[in-house]
Amino acid sequence: MSAPQFNTWQSVQDEVLRRIHAREWPPGSAIPHEADLAVEFGCARTTVNRALRAVAEAGLLDRRRKAGTRVALHPVRKATLSITIIRAEIEGLGMAYAYRRILAETVKAPAPVQRRLGIRNDPMLHVRALHLADATPYVLEERWVRIASVPTIMEADLTQQSANEWLVANAPFTHGDIAFSASAASEAEATFLACAPGAALFVIARTTWNGAAPITSVRLTYAPGYRMVTEL
Amino acid sequence: MSAPQFNTWQSVQDEVLRRIHAREWPPGSAIPHEADLAVEFGCARTTVNRALRAVAEAGLLDRRRKAGTRVALHPVRKATLSITIIRAEIEGLGMAYAYRRILAETVKAPAPVQRRLGIRNDPMLHVRALHLADATPYVLEERWVRIASVPTIMEADLTQQSANEWLVANAPFTHGDIAFSASAASEAEATFLACAPGAALFVIARTTWNGAAPITSVRLTYAPGYRMVTEL
DNA sequence: AAGTGGTCTAGACCACGTC
DNA sequence: ACGTGGTCTAGACCACTTT
Lengths: 232, 232
Prior knowledge:
Two copies of one chain form a homodimer.
Chain A: H1 9-21, H2 34-41, H3 45-57, E1 61-64, E2 68-71, E3 77-83, H4 86-92, E4 97-108, H5 111-117, E5 123-133, E6 136-146, H6 163-170, E7 175-184, H7 187-193, E8 200-210, E9 213-222, E10 227-231
Antiparallel strand pairs in A: 1-2, 4-5, 5-6, 6-9, 7-8, 8-9
Helix pairs in contact in A: 1-3, 2-3
The structure holds a DNA duplex.
């Protein structure tokens, strides 16, 4: 007889996933308690807990104290997107990276940007720059930085290093939001990205804070054909 | 005198995050070993491990056996997108959900779809459907399902329930890939989504497998103005 | 009130990678 | 070879939630 051995939390996780996928534990049903599973698997409850927690984080289990653990009815799969530096992204594709600053000015931000950041009339650094891959336009970066939050950026040479890269290295942030959308190329965008006006462009808008202090808001407009890919 | 108390792994995590953000542990620098931190924090090494592992998963620390733990030079922030069923997404916005099947046929899939799924000439179910929010077009679903992988789908009434929803409930998958892009509306898409041809549309392409068996490949084309939002 | 997951501890052994 | 993180154990107490 002797049940198979489950010595590691990963082997327990594999077995749990197998039972879920095989419908031995159907969606919505309650699964045995940690203590029972520990006995069945012949390991410590801590190990079972580690495994179940990992599966729950993946969205396949719902766990609640007292209520127990149930197989998720609508497995909310989570796709994780890694937000990297643009230079690293391009070089990772095996292409040559180049960067061209188009504009840098100190101004009051337009109303929509102020609203996103929750500020009023603070002086902002406005930077527009183009990132190129193998000498062809890759993405247009349109950025506002709240100077009071990152005063040292005024001493950075943004003709050589992108604001994107400088901020990643020098301006830590605690949280932010990010939005993905599609947008028709404006006349200006079409010129910079070497495409036709009205072309469908992939856009990422990101706003970040350091604690309560707003840092920056950026709009990245990608050249036609860009695809953001990840795994499930 | 007496160092502050860190009884829980979350309090340890908070302190670690504070030191990283405050640059007490600058980017690229090595931080003390788990054992040393356990002594400093006055807790078990297990607790320190739990905290550091969580911070490492968030991308702020790089951990390697023997090499030790370092503050990440380029913190790779991860955005997690939850993939839900479309009806839940629309109802979650407080809008009325409606669904209209446009087409369902059993055919051989076109070459690009076969290539994505890694199959040849298998019979496929092809479904085209429109999801509406408050009676206006929300997203167009264009889907291919490999019948051999999910035979029971032929008995489902896809005029009432969307293939999206049926599959989530009845066809478990182990892994998949997902791509986001922007695309100009074709004549057909413009008609279904009630927009102008050439309009910039947000597109999600998803392909899923159950183990080695390909399940389905779907292209979701959203009506103009759609934004996919998440937090960092 | 009681049951379930969440967490902490102290000690131990192990796997991996760097030296 | 050896140092560091990775994990396991057995037992205990606690927090949250539902009954």
